[in-house]
Amino acid sequence: MRIVIVGGVAAGMSAASRAMRQNPEADVVVFERGEYISYGACGLPYVLGGDVDSFDDLIARTPGQMRSRGIGVRLRHEVTGVDAKAATVTVVDHDSGRSAVEPYDKLLLATGVSAIRPDWATTDLGGVHVLRDIPDGQAIESSLKDASAHGKGRAVIVGGGYIGLELAETLHCRGLSVVIVEKAPEVAGRMLDRDYQQRVRAELEGNGVEIRCGTSVEGLTGKDGRVTGVQTDHGLIRADVVIVAVGVRPNTGLARVAGARVGKTGAVAVNTRQETAVEGVYSAGDNTESLHRVTRRKVHIPLGLTANRMGRVAGVNMAGGDATFPGVVGSSIFKTFSLGAARTGLTQTEADELGLRAVSVDVSSTDHAGYYATAKPIYVRLTAEHGTGRLLGAQLVCNNHESVKRVDVIAALLHGRGKVQDLFEMDLSYAPPFSGVWDVLLVAADRLS
Ligand code: FAD
């Protein structure tokens, strides 16, 4: 049994480990075109910000550790073709320049996503970056050192999604003045409803980040090979460093060549066992779509837990076991400065767009008992289906960033198609340093029921 895995980060390495555990006799080989495997890309902003000491700390398992478990790892090996009829892949070794044809019994495409680089961002100018992997992080680190060597620099982040917002804090803490340029009317993308986006924006502006929404980038200016500015439809913004964080695109090229179906979401379509439409070919991770358990629609929400879980399911199945991926409920969370923002399920805006009869309640309270010294205001929007009381989603924002992690209570209920009354009846933990006796989620459920 030869299992070939393309891509060696979250989905690929989870699959490799699980496949070996399921069938220790299997010959498992991972081809990774980059120089690193098995690392937490989610930690990249925190290395740049100094909360994590080095990029190496993000590496969960080295190639040596994986090989000692019997997993073949080939770095700087890019899979450039798939012949699903012959059950082979073509692999180019970027060190020797040689290409080889490798057979498989089961093939996993765990190729992730690529950062979108609009035409204006395709440039040789130094100081212009995307952030997807460790080499991108190292390149940003070196630009930040250059910028600080020339005094207080200025960073322009193009894109106000969660990666842009995490980086705004990072770059500010590194002593740069930070401008976020966002085409949409607000930051935080489609993650939150408008008024919750505005709370995020207020936090950034309160910390001195300049935000220019409703602004499109048209080009870059440069001098002596380095970027000097960002040209927008509202004028030129001086810049020493530019981060392009305008979204990602699933890497579906190999899946298409193999004959797999790509869904309307733009990501690879699979069944619950992570099998594509092509016999023996699986897909998992950021390149793959999943089922949204609230809407029962296919979605592409590229996040870390989803990638690890899909990889695990694919690994078990490729090695002869039987596992299924349960789908997602659209949970995500981020921090910028002291503010945490989280959502799960649907926002009111999303529910409206889907034509659902949704109703929301807003509660502002404190995250700890009101009299407790570190209590901070917390804002919760709870959304449910009108008439049935079925929970549809929640959004939380709080300046004690860890307090928004209580969103997971709602995520758990959404998995079981829970109702507002189910939430209200829950025996949630209480002590003054953690919440009021009636936690803000219970207050929201009470008001909505
Ligand atoms: P990837 O990590 O993209 O790995 C795919 C690998 O496949 C790459 O190494 C690539 O080189 C390789 N590859 C592609 N094509 C080929 C080929 N033809 N041949 C060989 N190799 C190939 N998620 C969260 O849930 N929470 C967070 O807080 C969070 N923060 C993030 C912050 C940043 C800055 C970034 C970049 C991501 C963050 N994510 C977060 C997303 C999370 O990191 C991803 O969901 C996860 O890494 C996806 O893993 P993956 O294995 O599917 O894809």
UniProtKB/TrEMBL annotation:
Which cofactor does the UniProt annotation name?
A: FAD
Top-level taxon of origin: Bacteria
Q: Which residues form the FAD/NAD(P)-binding domain?
A: 1-290
Pfam families, A to Z: Pyr_redox_2, Pyr_redox_dim
Q: Where in this chain does the record put each Pyridine nucleotide-disulphide oxidoreductase dimerisation domain?
A: 337-437
Keywords carried by this UniProt record? FAD, Flavoprotein, Oxidoreductase, Redox-active center
Q: Which Gene3D superfamilies match?
A: FAD/NAD(P)-binding domain (3.50.50.60)
Give GO terms: molecular function aspect only.
Answer: oxidoreductase activity
Tell me its family: Belongs to the class-III pyridine nucleotide-disulfide oxidoreductase family.
Q: What is this protein called?
A: NADPH-dependent 2,4-dienoyl-CoA reductase/sulfur reductase-like enzyme
